[in-house]
């Protein structure tokens, strides 16, 4: 305790002057000096005299504390009303009902297609496979895959118009 008191008396004015030069604010320099001296007290066991002088170690701690304080100061204040932080509004009841009805109509229309066309639609639009991948998977020529998907769309369009 006596050693820390001597260290404090010797280094606190010098650390405060150093921090005053960095901050140009007397109160901030005083606060950062207190924080530095407290950090020195906590980290005293980490000091290694073989790596350098105590003064270099102390002023490095002071500089790091000043950098941390400066970074905190430069961060923008949190604004809970920032549009980027506000989640998008959820769908309202009419939109949800329309989506549900559209989904049901699509399922009904898919029932009118041959199973092979339903499978091609599923691979292309639900699994998001490319036409060449579908052709390789099914063993069909790519032109056949494209024409069957186009035919399936035409039948789906007709079926959906009949349902509505």
Automatic annotation (TrEMBL):
Gene3D superfamilies: 1.10.1740.10, Winged helix-like DNA-binding domain superfamily/Winged helix DNA-binding domain. InterPro entries: RNA_pol_sigma-70-like, RNA_pol_sigma-70_dom, RNA_pol_sigma70_r2, RNA_pol_sigma70_r4, RNA_pol_sigma_r2, RNA_pol_sigma_r3/r4-like, WH-like_DNA-bd_sf. It comes from the Bacteria. Keywords: DNA-binding, Sigma factor, Transcription, Transcription regulation. Residues 7-75, 109-157 form the RNA polymerase sigma-70 region domain. GO terms for molecular function: DNA binding; sigma factor activity. The keyword GTP-binding does not apply. GO terms for biological process: DNA-templated transcription initiation. Belongs to the sigma-70 factor family. ECF subfamily. This is Sigma-70 family RNA polymerase sigma factor. It comes from Devosia marina. The lineage of its organism: Bacteria, Pseudomonadati, Pseudomonadota, Alphaproteobacteria, Hyphomicrobiales.
């Amino acid at each position: 305790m006596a050693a820390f008191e001597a260290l404090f008396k010797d280094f606190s004015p010098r650390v405060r002057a150093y921090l005053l030069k960095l901050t140009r604010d007397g109160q901030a320099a005083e606060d950062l000096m207190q924080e530095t001296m407290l950090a020195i007290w906590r980290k005293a066991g980490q000091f290694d005299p073989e790596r350098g002088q105590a003064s270099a170690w102390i002023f490095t701690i002071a500089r790091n504390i000043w950098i941390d304080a400066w970074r905190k100061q430069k961060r923008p204040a949190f604004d809970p009303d920032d549009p980027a932080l506000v989640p998008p509004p959820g769908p309202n009841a009419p939109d949800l009902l329309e989506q549900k009805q559209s989904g049901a109509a699509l399922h009904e229309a898919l029932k009118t297609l041959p199973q092979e066309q339903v499978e091609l639609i599923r691979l292309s639009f639900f699994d998001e496979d490319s036409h060449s991948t579908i052709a390789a998977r099914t063993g069909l020529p790519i032109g056949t895959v494209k024409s069957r998907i186009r035919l399936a769309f035409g039948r789906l369009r007709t079926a959906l118009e009949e349902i509505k």
